[in-house]
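FIELD: query
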Amino acid sequence: MKRFLQLCAVVILLAGGVQRADAQKFAIKTNLLYDATGTVNFGVEMALAPRWTLDMPGNLNDWKMYNGRQWKHFLTQPEARYWFTNRFAGHFVGIHAHYGRYDIGNIDNNINFLGTNFGALKDNRFEGWLLGAGIGYGYAFVLSKHWNLELELGIGYAYMEFDKYAWATNDKLESNAHHNYFGITKLNVGISYLF
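FIELD: result
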């Protein structure tokens, strides 16, 4: 009898831990990676069909960092998502667009990644805008009826147009310069609250 009760308890606990998220129609969310950088971010995601959702995040960082560093930006990145099982749960793929404005500089680094020299941020400031698109793959872990943990990686393209300034003197070095970026366009470790 004791073994039977233990088995029943395990079955009840496991059944209680399996949640369906497809009944949910709407989510509010935040990306913990942006939170870690001090960037205010907020997103909404809404159901469009049984396996389709539309994710609409926005990010804003409008202040100077410590030691005179600057990483001001606004970014929005709408994404249509197709879920392989139920929406808001499990594997998904997405196609996203992105638009943003930025004013960044005085960031000391030696990163040269996929043809983009981020080391140029050390002695310069770049002010401009970007526009692009990409594809993503992700997975949503259902934590409870209303809470999800979401992971996503996206790759794509961004066209960037900017003015370049010398950091120390603020003299304009280039006007209407541009850069074509190919690489990671979305990285998300997010928490969602579902309605």
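FIELD: remark
Residues 8-20 have pLDDT under 50 and may be disordered.
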